[in-house]
Each structure stands twice: as structure tokens, then as C-alpha cells.
Model the fold of this input.
Amino acid sequence: MHEKVVYQIYPKSFNDSDGNGIGDLRGVIEKIPYLTKLGVEMLWLNPFFISPQNDNGYDVAHYTEIDPLFGTMADFEELVAKAKENDMGIMLDMVLNHTSTEHEWFQKALAGDKKYQDYYILREAKEDGSLPTNWVSKFGGPSWAKFGDTDKYYLHLFDVTQADLDWRNPEVREEMFKIVNFWLDKGVTGFRFDVINLIGKDEVLLDAEDGVGKARYTDRPIAHDFLHELNQRTFGRFEDIMTVGEMSSTTVENGVKYSNPENEELSMIFSFHHLKVDYKNGEKWTKIDYDFMELKRILDEWQAGMSQGNGWNALFWNNHDQPRAISRFGDPVNHFEASAKLHAQTIHLLRGTPYIYQGEEIGMTNPNYLDIQDFVDVETKNAYQELKEKGLQHEEIMDIIREKSRDNSRTPMQWSNELNAGFTTGEPWLEVADNFHQINVEEELANGTVMDYYKRLIALRKEMKVISEGSYRGILMEHPSVYAYVREYEGQQLLVLNHFYADPATIVVPEEFKNRSSKFLIGNGEERELGSSITLEAYETVAYLFEK
Done:
């Protein structure tokens, strides 16, 4: 499993087959040949279940029915079959921490059904009339909302239309097992579990000292028990089902527990600390240059810690919740191809499973929207209002939103330089980035080199155990512009040097590699032998192979 690479598809923005402006399952089927050529072996699709779409499908109203917006169950079954014919599996995105308030369970609870009220986390106000706890929703505002016309409140760690489930209720867990097993029966071979480390809330919910509350509900010990039970009752009954947990604000220690095979929980985990290095004082909605030294410290901490504990990382820069990495950590204007290849190689040669987010393989950038009306993301809209209330001016707010909004990654896939980048013949649900004439699949296949670079990295992972299974060791950690590391496996060593800035950087090669024969394996610059020192050009990445 470690030699596989996953490709993430945001169905709403991938390919529209019927001209209604929204991507769909038949659109994914149309692009199977493209994905096959890329060499990926697992397709992760974001939620396409029935949903009011308040949070783009992460507010699920029915877990085993497909929203007509995206197609039919027959379409899905065809997609599974076509993917399998091409040696690819389908990974589904399961949102098991919360449901939409439109879900039948919540509606029955509102109607007074005690059984379903116990499915959710309901609490009465404090004696002074204040909310049950002082926790803040991840989308802003309080994390409690009035439960109908009762004197109770329901917990929603995300949008007010996303009510948290009570996993301590065995009946809830049984429902979860049924859902996962339903999709396993449909031929699904992978699952990505949304914010799954938040499922283990305490029985007694207490105020948070910091007034936010993350520590009160994140990585609680019982979450491991719940995941082990989920494993044993569902996907753990089969071989080679790939699972990945999205772990909000987790630790290396917990990451090891979640992903060490001996614990029988998950195959791997996503952690996000490396994508918060451009948050001022930990606040997302700010604008500062990213902290490179902190970036590589975090990458090194997770690589070393997970390696030592036999945990497994999901490796990524981009996803549907993050701005485009090339706009964030590279220079798409002056060093487009070098930046794109640098980010690819840095991640793909690390220890873990690489994830490619749609469009990353052609270097898609943030869209640089001019107007707040161009954005549709609920978190972005809330942030605009909050920043306005803090006294920031419109243009200052827009500068922040243009860099941090989740919509940056949700723009339609750029297939060609035709109308709407070939994504749809209709009106796209979200505006296409205005650089689609230069950056698109057709142009890349005809004249580009970025996708070919991704193909080579994917192929190398399949061919070389030192990449798919080797140990990790960070080196040159004090260097101000280079992130360097060594992978080792059964006598082979791979030295990887990644230069994150435009000004050239000269590195003195560590003593252990001096005067040794090496092979230039892959790089985005000039192929050359490794001497006692090496000068890396703008955004250059290079890997040398040593045989002991």
C-alpha cells in the first residue's frame, strides 16, 4: 500500500458532464483515461451524498444516497467498475462527526423522538442562562445553538446546520458501521474520515480555559477506542482497504497511535500544522509571509516522530480546504515550473503516502478574485463579517481572503483554454481562475513539463523501496532556505535537497556523502554530479542515490 499515490477529486469542480455548471460523477468517469495516464492508484472523492450544501456536502442529509446534483447510484457503480478496470480504487469521504440538521435523525429528534435526541449532543444552559460551554465553532461564533423550542442546545463544532453526533451512544456507532459497510459492499476500497479525531467528546463537557475549546474535544483517549471498533466492524475485515483520518490539531504522539498498524485503527493520517506557518499568532485570517524555518521544523518533527513510532503520514500541500501551495509557498509568476516541481518532489520523496489535489499536477494557482461576491464559501463569508467588525477596511480584508479562502482551491479544474476552461458548457458554480488560458491540461500535455514530473515521481515510488518504505532523517536543519533529508533502505540512501527561494544557495555537502559515488536520480534543474558542495538555483530540488 505504501507505494500508492492518491488523487483527490472535488467533484463539484472537477468536470461537468451535463452543462449545469456543477461537476458530477459522469464527469469523473469521462476523465478516467487522464487519471490512468497520471499513474495514480486511488481516487479520493469529496462528499457527493444528499446534502443541502451549506458546507459543500460536508453537511450530510443521507449517507447512502447520492445527491442528484452529482448523479445516480448507477453512475457511481459505473465509476467504481471503470476505475477498477484501470487498476484504481475509489476512496470515499465519510463525514461521521456530524450530520446536517436536515438529516432524518435530527428532524426526528426535533420532533421529540427521545431515541434520536440521544444521537446528538444536547445540553441545557448553565444556571445563569449562558450557553452549556464557552466553546467557539470552527466557523466562528458559539458552538451551541437552540434545539428547537426546547430549553436545550445542540453542539455544532462547525456550521450551525452541522449537528455533532454522540459517539458514546452505541446505537450511533452501529449506524456508522452500517454506513461504512454499505459502501464497502459497493466496491469502495478507501475511506477518508473527516475530522475523525473529534468524535470522542467527554461525557461531562467543561468550559475551556482559553475560551475556544479545542483541547476539550480533540484527541480524547476514547476516540482511539471508537476508531478501533470502527476498524474491526467494517474495513478492518478486509485486506488492503486504505483509510486516512483527517486529524484536526493533533499531535505526533496521537498520530502514531491512530496509524500504527498494531493498533488497528487507520492506515494513515492528515495533520495540518505545516499549513499554519503563515498564520499570525495562530490566526488563519491574517496576512504574513510564511515562516520557512517553522515549516521545515514541523515537517521534520512529523517525519521523524511518525517514522520512529511506526506511524504513517498522508503527505500533501493542497486540498479542498487550503489555498494553492504554488501561490502560497512558491512563485508562480517568475518561477512557475520550478516552484511546482519543488513542491511535488519535497512531498513525494518523503516517508508517507502522497496526495495530489486536482489541478496541482498542472500548477493551478489561487484565482485572485477581486470581489467578495466572487466567493461562496461559508467560512469565508463569516470571516469577512468578523474582520469587518474588528475594524479592518474592505481592501485589507480582501487581501487576506484572497490568500486564505478555501475557495482558492475549489475553482473549476482547468482542462483547456476554451470557455470556462472546458469545465462546463454552462455557468460554473464558482468562477474559473483567469489564468486558465495559460494553465490548463491541454496546454500542459502539449508544451508543459510539470505533469511529466509528477508521473516520474509516482513511478519512482512504485519502483524504489527506499522511497516507499525507507526511514527518514532530516539534515542541514539550520539552513535558512533549504529543507534537506535522507531516506534509507537496505543499503540505499537517497539525499534530497529542496531549495524554497529564488536567490541561489550553496550547500556544503555533509561529510557522510563526500567522496562517494552517487547517481543523479531526479531534479528540476541541471543534471550534474554531486561534489563537495552544490549550488541550488531558484526553487531547485534534486535527489541523489547512494549505494552503500
Q: What stands out?
A: The longest strand covers residues 482-489. The two ends are 26 Å apart (CA to CA). The mean pLDDT is 97. The chain has three domains: 6-98+170-457, 104-164, 471-547.
